[in-house]
Structure formats: C-alpha cells, structure tokens
Amino acid sequence: AMDRSNGEFVEGIVCKASDIPENGMQVVNLDSEENKILVVKQNGQICAMGTKCSHYGAPLVNGALGNGRVRCPWHGACFNIKTGDIEDFPGLDSVPTYQVEVTPSGDVKVKARKSDLTAQKRLKQMAKRDPNNNNTFVIVGSGAAGLVCAETLRQEGFSGKVVLVTAEKYLPYDRVKLSKFLDSTADKIQLRPAAFYKEHGIETMTECPATGLDTEAKKLKLSNGDHLSYSSIFIATGSIPRRPDLPGVNLTNIFTLRSLDDAHSINNALSTDSEVVVYGSSFIGMEAAAYCNGKVKKVTVVGRSAVPFAESLGQDLGGRIGKLFTDKGVVLKMNTTIKCFKGDGEVSSIELSDGSTMAANVVILGLGSTF
C-alpha cells in the first residue's frame, strides 16, 4: 500500500478489516516500524489508538477489552477505544486516537498526527481560568486524588479558582514508587511539572498543613494562622501508616513509609552493615525488602501469614514470590509477629512471638494504614 506523509500527518493502509476478529486487538505499523498503532474491532466497527498505557507504558494489546474500553494489563487504567479518554485511574493522561476509514475493498486506512504517534499520550482539554468567576474550589491533600480532582475540575469546564493545599514540601508525586526506590527524588517521581499548574491556573500551597474547618463560614484554617475561603472543598488527606502499640516502637530507626522524606530517612539509615527487619509482608514491606537486599548485611521479613501477599494474592502465588525472595538471600519469618523492640535510644534488636530475638538496627513497618 502507498503510504503518504504530509507535514504533520501520516496516512496509510495498515491491514484488512477481515484481519481483525470481532472483539480483537492487534498492533500494526503505520508508514514505518517506529509508528505503531493499536487497532480494535468491536460491534463491527474499527478504532485505532495509541499502543501504550499512559501510566507506565504497558502494552494495551495485552489488556482486557471491555464494552467500549480497554483495561491496562499492569495496573488497570481504562481508556475509551473511540476517544482515547482515560476513564479509570491510575494514570493521568489519555491516549491518542486516530482517524479510521475502511475502503470499499476492505482496507483499513489510518490517518494520524505525527506528534501523537511520538508522544503516545495526550491531555484532555482543560478549561482556562476566568478572573470573573468568583467560585473557589479548595483541595486539601496532594496525593493522586487531590491532583486528579484539580485536573478533572478543569477538564469538566470549571473556570473558577482552584487551590491545592498540602502539608508536603513537594508538588504531587507518585507515592507508589517510594517503596520501590527509597532513593527517589521529587523531580523523578512528580506527577506533573511545576509549569503544568501555572499553565492551567491551579494554585498550589506547599508546606501548609490544614488545621481546622469552619463549614458554616466556609473557611479552611491553615497552620500559619491564615484562613482560606472556599465555595466548595474536597478533603483528600489520605491515611496514616499504622504503628503498632508495642514496647519500644518509638525507638529511633523504626520507620513507616508514606512520604518522600520518610523514604529518604530510611535510605540514609542504611549501610552495608545494616541488619534490616521489615515488619509486614504485603506490597510496601516486600518492595522495601527488595530495595534493601544487596545494599545491606541482612534483610529479614516478619509476617503473620504463612506466605507473603497471602491476603492479596493467595497461598500459591504468595509462596512463589516468597521463594524468589529467599533465593535472593532474604530471610522470611512467617506465621510470626513482633512482641517488642529493644535498644538504648536506637533499635538494636527485636523479640518475636516465639520468644526468640534477632539483631535489627533498621526496622521498616509495612503494616497497612489507619485514618
């Protein structure tokens, strides 16, 4: 087939309509090996869209095709097959869609913007801030929910004032990455660059904890003594890591992990001589253990269930993941709990429920969260 490339668009025949089965998805080339697109057939209609999830770049062809949407195989983000709009978290951006024409002879012809093929993601249309609109929407908390709320307001046409208030010193970042990379930096894991907020008229107030709320007067009290008036407010302050009420739990070098500063504190406490105990065998605990392994003297995971991830993934899969860890030298103490933490100012050992003790000069608590 003759492919035409004119200026900002690429156009060409990518396949036959009969090549794609009903409810089928296939990656095809448009014009060259570099330009890949995902072709989807549903209810006899053919759509063309970006091949990668906008979250971490997973191949959507391996995902699940539902009614009018494809769900990413890695973390479950959903995209509308006709518009490319993101319809379910995680991820912020939509994916591009391309013009499709089926010729009388059954060829599928696709026309795509070159910039879309390169970027593989796009931002939904955002409303501009209108200085004459006196409505103020205040968002408390800068996690994924707070940021998505701010973006969604603009995407749904809200032109009033949007103010994002956070106790953090950083703009919204991808908290999920902290347990995978305790040495993360704010610029590497930020969800949007600083310029994004300016461009879309989203005001940010960092290092500004909210301390009180007067719903009658519609005022939010801030830690610096100021008050912020609002028309509407969204409270998305998230949860607090669980710290068990055990003897010695407040010794130094016993950490929970929620913020970037927490991650840095743990990372700075690690050395090649460290004997690290991770309490909790689900995602945060196991990911922190994986990060520490190979950087320290010893890593032990203490968990109350028979295998890691028992509650979320079940015995069989949890057991296989556990073996991956023990093969790499991580010690698993399962069906066990910690009775107390011992040390003089700083933790030096732990006592387990069976009465045995174990050296520990860094403890990471991965025991879920509370409100």
UniProtKB/TrEMBL annotation:
CDD domains cross-referenced by the UniProt entry: Rieske_AIFL_N
Gene3D superfamilies: FAD/NAD(P)-binding domain (3.50.50.60), Rieske [2Fe-2S] iron-sulphur domain (2.102.10.10)
UniProt KW Metal-binding keyword: yes
Coiled-coil residue windows: none
GO CC annotation, single: cytoplasm
Organism: Lygus hesperus
Short name of any one Pfam family annotated for the protein: Pyr_redox_2
Superkingdom as given in the UniProt entry: Eukaryota
GO MF: 2 iron, 2 sulfur cluster binding; metal ion binding; oxidoreductase activity, acting on NAD(P)H
Domain Rieske: 12-102
Keyword Flavoprotein found: yes
Name of the protein: Apoptosis-inducing factor 3
Entry keywords, A to Z: 2Fe-2S, FAD, Flavoprotein, Iron, Iron-sulfur, Metal-binding, Oxidoreductase
Cofactors that this protein relies on: FAD
SUPFAM superfamilies found in the cross-reference section: FAD/NAD(P)-binding domain, ISP domain
